């Protein structure tokens, strides 16, 4: 039986916004599924529909064979949720865990869960006084209560430091190894790449690709990527004029060039060497970042593309709308 079965899902907000547009998706039991997409693509709306926090305009969702609209409580018993923008009240960290354990009629040890997410020393502090990353760790611990069959994590790395991200990945991997299905939305592509079995890419409400990372790379024509570091990258590098270059992304004095194939890399190096001192060269298959850009071109970043700027998805923290969901 599939963990998640989504058929013909559509969600309109008012007359003008189609947040989710005819999405079909199956996530198998035990999979770690990464849900990617730029800001406003429809990821959180899909998650809120999956949990029956909002109702679809059309379509249906089953979780472990149960229709979420027909029996949302049965579904929630099997699901642990880390929502986007959790709102905290003045309760101690341990009290939050105790509340979550009581609500699920579970028998977890609150201190064990706090220890797992690195909050053992902060159990007796108010959650409202926690930093953003600590609040995220606490919300993650609450999602783990009662060892749910399905973990739904909406941008779980928001606010986490590198140690927090590593802990979160390790826990996700460990739970998945024990059979938990994980549905995981993220903007952090390297994280998705390192943790997920398959990814789905949303753009403008539509699911534009579902595949393994390797499958996505193969379907996009064996593209190659080369990263060059220069002491000073000239503004008029004109790398996009080299035959076979499909994308140029610049960050400070580092430039990532996506090419139609590995053979183009030599031309890229020759072109840039004539214009700048190259300090370092890294060469790899097309990065997830460039795949992501290619799949989501024409979305809300289109105007940036038209200006010739890189259409990188920005981190969500600055502009997330803090969708508040009921528990
Ligand atoms: N309650 C709402 N009322 C009106 N429009 C909404 C509502 N919630 C979401 N939308 C719209 O639906 C679209 C999809 O939003 P959603 O939050 O699902 O995107 P997202 O992929 O989760 O984005 P982000 O990565 O920025 O969190 C956007 O155009 C958004 O403005």
UniProtKB/TrEMBL annotation:
Spans annotated as Disordered: 296-327
Signal peptide from the UniProt entry: none
The ABC transporter domain, residue ranges: 4-229
Source taxon at top rank: Archaea
Gene Ontology MF annotations: ATP binding
Gene3D superfamilies: P-loop containing nucleotide triphosphate hydrolases (3.40.50.300)
InterPro entries: AAA+_ATPase (IPR003593), ABC_transporter-like_ATP-bd (IPR003439), ABC_transporter-like_CS (IPR017871), P-loop_NTPase (IPR027417)
Pfam families xrefs: ABC_tran
Name recorded for this polypeptide: ABC transporter ATP-binding protein
Assigned keywords, A-Z: ATP-binding, Nucleotide-binding, Transport
Family: Belongs to the ABC transporter superfamily.
Compositionally skewed regions (Basic and acidic residues) per UniProt: 296-310, 318-327
Keyword Transport recorded: yes
């Amino acid at each position: 039986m599939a963990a998640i079965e989504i058929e013909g899902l559509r969600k309109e907000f008012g007359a003008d916004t189609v947040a989710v547009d005819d999405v079909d998706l199956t996530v198998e039991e035990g999979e770690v599924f990464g849900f990617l997409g730029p800001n406003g693509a429809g990821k959180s709306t899909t998650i809120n529909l999956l949990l029956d926090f909002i109702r679809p305009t059309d379509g249906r969702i089953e979780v472990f064979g149960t229709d979420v609209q027909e029996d949302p409580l049965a579904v929630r018993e099997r699901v642990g949720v880390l929502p986007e923008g959790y709102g905290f009240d003045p309760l101690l960290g341990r009290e939050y865990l105790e509340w979550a354990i009581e609500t699920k009629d579970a028998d977890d040890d609150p201190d064990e869960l706090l220890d797992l997410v690195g909050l053992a020393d902060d159990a007796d502090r108010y959650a409202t006084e926690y930093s953003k990353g600590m609040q995220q760790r606490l919300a993650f611990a609450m999602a783990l209560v009662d060892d749910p069959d399905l973990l739904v994590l909406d941008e779980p790395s928001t606010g986490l430091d590198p140690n927090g991200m590593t802990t979160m990945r390790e826990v996700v991997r460990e739970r998945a190894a024990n059979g938990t299905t994980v549905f995981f939305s993220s903007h952090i592509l390297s994280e998705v790449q390192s943790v997920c079995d398959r990814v789905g890419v949303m753009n403008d409400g539509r699911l534009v690709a579902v595949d393994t990372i390797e499958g996505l790379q193969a379907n996009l024509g064996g593209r190659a990527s080369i990263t060059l570091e220069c002491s000073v990258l000239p503004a008029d590098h004109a790398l996009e004029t080299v035959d076979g270059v499909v994308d140029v992304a610049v960050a400070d004095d580092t430039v990532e060039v996506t090419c139609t194939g590995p053979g183009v890399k030599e031309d890229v190096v020759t072109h840039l060497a004539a214009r700048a001192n190259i300090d370092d060269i890294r060469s790899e298959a097309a990065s997830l970042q460039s795949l992501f850009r290619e799949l989501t071109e024409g979305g809300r970043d289109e105007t940036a593309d038209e200006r010739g700027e890189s259409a990188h998805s920005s981190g969500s923290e600055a502009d997330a709308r803090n969708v508040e969901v009921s528990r």
